[in-house]
Amino acid sequence: MAVPTGITSTAHGEGSRNIMKRIAVISVMLLADYFSPHVSAAPQSHPRPFRPLPARTSALPVRGGGDVVNSAPLSALKNAVTEPITVFLRTVAGARRHLAAAAVARATSIFVMYPMDTVKTRIQMGEKALGGASAAAVTRGLYAGVEGSLIGQVPYGVLTFGSYEVYKEALLKRMPGVPPALVYAFAAILGDTTGSFWLCPSEVVKQQIQGGIHPSTAAAVRDIWAKRGFRGFYQGYGGGLARDIPFRVAQLTSYEVAKSVYLKFRRRRAGEADDDATEGERKGLGPAEAAACGAVAGTLSAAATAPLDRIKTLLMTDGAKYSNSVAKCASTILRDEGVAGLFSGVVPRVVYIAPSVALFFIVYEKVQRSFD
User: What's the Cα-to-Cα distance from 363 to each of 20, 139, 253, 357, rounded to whole Å?
Assistant: First the structure.
């Protein structure tokens, strides 16, 4: 399949970096806009922002007989900086039982299903994985790098949950006319983006170990640092975002569709009209029902974003070949392997999701009950 090659690799790289910069700017602007009332409400020592301050004011006396400028603006600025951290910590503390159960469930599902993730990575890497794509190479050392994955994934869940609540509170306050569902979706995307700064290094280390580039987590960290320094742990970061953001949107959308279809089926089974809001519907889904809908949504989303997942894998394991560019990586796959190449590894990716979701809910419910 012919692919236009007029865009240079530099342009591709700049495009990926611009996308990441815009997402970061949006996050910062939201937080700044949310907390700006604390600053603007503070007393000002002069009416014009660019007028020089007088040498002395009649505010508070200090030792030695002089006066100081009113410290309220500085205090307000300090509050504006510390309040997001306070909201985050308060959210995490208030949901510590949920987070503890989720951490155990997440660690369990990752560990149990890790071999399938390793198989997927090696299929996506092709001949570069362990020196070949044979069945023996693909299934060798299936738990290689699992400790690094757990170190990255479990705290990532806490970070995304806490930052999601911060963004949600900011968005709901500043956009009261926007439908809550859209606010929650956007807050989830921003939360995932924030968490990705923690997750990306562990993903780079994990996938390079899975592909046989390094023998262990310690060796991977040492070699990546020696070759590229701090930046080496963020190679493929743009590919990770390019996969995770569409996956989150697809997952939220397909979950709502699956939930709606299931509730309609449940109403009909109970002999009720489609437009009736039954007591069962008002109560929503039970844990098992939510797990089933989540598994369906996750499976569909995983299949839809499989091409982006392969791009992310190639960028994290051999980013230099593609100038660390999502666009160049995609065009190279299309040129060399065709459309089918984009879906390499789709079967283990899809097979991985449904059992992971089901296992997560089962363990989560058991741990939650153990707290009672």
Answer: 35, 27, 25, 10
Radius of gyration of the chain (CA): 25
CA dihedral over 97, 101, 106, 107, signed as positive or negative: positive
CB-based contact 252:188 (threshold 8 Å): yes
For 336, residues 6+ apart whose C-beta sits below 8 A from its C-beta are: none
Q: Are 174 and 34 in contact (CB under 8 A)?
A: yes
Could you tell me if residue 295 is left (phi over 0), alpha (psi between -120 and 50 degrees) or otherwise beta?
alpha
- CA 13, distance to chain mean position in Å, is 21
E strand map for the chain:
60-61, 67-68
65 Cβ contact partners less than 8 Å away, ≥ 6 residues apart? none
298: its two tokens: 């996750």
CA separation for the pair 142, 53 (Å, rounded): 66
Per-residue confidence (pLDDT) for residue 214, from 0 to 100 = 92
pLDDT digits (tens, 9 = 90+) for 26-40: 554 554 444 444 433
> How high is the pLDDT of residue 12?
46
Instruction: Provide mean pLDDT across the span 344-348.
Output: 93
In the predicted structure, residue 133 carries a pLDDT above the cut 70:
no
pLDDT attached to residue 251: 86
**pLDDT tens profile 249-263:** 888 888 888 888 888
Query: At a CB cut-off of 8 Å and minimum separation 6, what does 362 contact?
Result: 105, 291
Residue 118's pLDDT band, with cuts at 50, 70 and 90, is very high
Instruction: Tell me how long the chain is.
Output: 372
The CA–CA distances, whole Å, from 353 to 42, 143, 226, 259, 297 equal 50, 18, 35, 18, 9
Assign 60 to helix, strand or coil.
Answer: strand
Q: Indicate whether this model's pTM tops 0.85.
A: no
